[in-house]
Amino acid sequence: MDIEEQAALTSGADFWHTRAVGDVPAVMVTDGPHGVRKQVAGEGHGLLDSEPSTCFPPAVAMGSTWDPDLLRRVGEALGEECRAMDVAVLLGPGINLKRTPLGGRNFEYFSEDPILTGVLATEWVAGLQSRGVGASLKHFAINSQETDRMRVSADVDERTLRELYLRAFQRVVQRARPWTVMCSYNRINGVYASQHHWLLTEVLRGEWGYEGVLVSDWGAVVDRVEAVRAGLDLTMPGPDDPGDRALAAAVRDGSLPAPALQTAAARVASLVRRAVTAATPGATYDVEAHHALAREAAGRGIVLLKNEGGLLPLSPDEPAVAVIGEQARNPRYQGGGSSLINPTKLDNALDEITALARGDVRFAPGYDDPEAAATLARACSVAIVFAGSEEETEGSDRTGLELPAAHLALIERVAAANPRTVVVLSNGAVVRTGPWDAAVPALVEGWLLGQAGGGAIADVLFGVVNPSGRLAETIPLRLADHPSHLDFPGEQGHVRYGEGIHVGYRGFDAREQDVAYPFGFGLSYTTFEYSGLAVSTVDGGLEVRVTVTNTGARDGREVVQVYTALPVSRVRRAPRELKAFASVPVAAGASAEVVLRVEDGDLAYWDIELRRWVVEAGEYTVAVGASSRDIRATATVAVAGDDERRALTAESTIAEWFADPRGSQVLTEAFAALAGSGGDGGVMARTVVDPSMFSLMASMPLERVIAFAGEAFGPDALAELIKAAN
Ligand code: BGC
After folding, report:
1. CB atoms within 10 A of CB 288
2. Residue closest by Cα to atom 2 of ligand 1
3. Which of 296, 581, 638, 649 is deepest in the core (most CB within 10 A)?
4. d(CA 207, CA 726)
5. Each residue of 156-201: pLDDT tens digit?
6. Nearest CA to ligand 1 atom 8
7. pTM, two decimal places
8. Which of 217, 233, 240, 509 is catalytic?
9. Cα(28) to centroid of ligand 1, in Å?
10. Which domains, ranges and CATH numbers included, belong to the chain?
């Protein structure tokens, strides 16, 4: 390939195709993530005209399943649909952390926790790619807000970046090897993601060993030459003839090394070959089976938040059910923007409740007329109110956590009219549940559930499905409580990630704040007991064993969660960090022994001095429970760690010298000799070794202290001391 052909391969042919160059054909990429949004030919970016495909639950609901196996099955189904539609790469999953509950695209992201996100997304990608279809892991990186998303600089320290915002990407890249990774629009510490050499080349490729294609988000590239120099392979959409020419010119005039362009073009070509080899013309998929899977997944993503007096599940023989709220008839089942799927079919909760109930089911649209709704509720044996946010969309963040005023008024009126009121929420990110939930005995968090969500809601309401969804994000009492609150959405082009590592529940726990519903929380129609916790060190990590007993009368699923802490640590740590989890079916009355693995790498923190991951030695707390605030058993375990001794230097403090056994010994010896002498040297030495002076001296770097001794302790003596200490 000549230089012009290479350049041409590194930008798209149009919105959804790579460019055919020489013997390299074009392939199609489409959104994603929770369905296949294949644009009708010639329709560009028009969101509304795509071929029908199964609208699976968006990530907000999939994240709440906490079930890697389910994610894999949905990934496989999406892969089958892509193959049937001749799509080579599906643009997902989105794995940015939900840093703020206001994030406009939170519905497209899994969680506020990097391990939960990473484990689930790994399975999704593996499932998709097992069908010969590439994933596009997005948006790399730190794209946790929509406000000013194409310019804003996410200003974040390296430890937070590594431990929180990059951790899920690292996991998925290393374990599932996505065919493509999509860079984000925003800047990171001042540099556009699409031009970020450190992020794209040093970290992603160098440290993590990524070999696939780096594609831009649509329109994220500002400067084609700088993007290729930084390690980006494919700029989308296309065509971009001026950019192609600029690239070729840069190679010819030597300002861009020729191998940079060659490598980018070669990667695109190998992606295309891989896709062409895997293509299966004429493939089909089973629309009904995928709809059934979408219903199963939706049922598993629903989180039962409240169920006083066992109001739920409802009996099919409930004499009269009032279904209230237009969303029961016209469901809100996905968010707005590039992920909008044209579903193959669409269930609604009203029809599905009617199908399961043997008694009377009556409907009132509600929001504009709470009085009529209240009258209906009063006349029925139970009232189910459908309420939800209406805001979530790509491109803008939400303005608050409150439900729409009309929905709040409706809930209030209906709850006053019928004490047996159930509220079902439809929302893509958390809404404030108080203070109104005090008046409501049962509360079902239905997120955005995809095309079969209506059936899934009915399944949970009537106990066909025993709820096992758990919150993948904290529901705060108030927006102002949230760790991100003071640093969102930023100003003058910068958003400072001021809460650092204390994202989501980490921040609430560190400040010992009350929340409405904690991370990991969700009720079941049965109860579980934990017993026999045993934690041991095994090769590569910790093994956690615990027995879970279903002590209720119904079969159910428990999501066992393992959190660790290191109370005495060199660095600041969150009081609890999720490290492992398992979604386990347990029949009524039965027990299951659950074995979980905490990998060493997941215990590591990012050390900014050593600039690498460190598993700190120490006594770790391992807390096992049903939520981040419902810990059922705790153990401690000694971890040897992989700490290297940090060399003592002239800049090390007196405290650091004395904390080190060898350093303490040589310092004490050297200063004992000097202490007997007169003059400045004697004074200095006597002061340093005097225990009553320690608090004053502790934070002083050794060389600064030694300077007080003047000639008595010169540079050579200091050098000797350092040598002896190390
Ligand atoms: C979104 C991506 C999406 C792309 C293509 C962008 O605006 O950020 O998530 O894949 O458009 O539609």
Report:
1. 9
2. 217
3. 581
4. 29
5. 999 999 999 999 999 999 999 999 999 999 999 999 999 999 999 9
6. 217
7. 0.96
8. 217
9. 14
10. 3-55+64-278 (3.20.20.300), 287-510 (3.40.50.1700), 528-639 (2.60.40.10), 654-725 (no CATH)
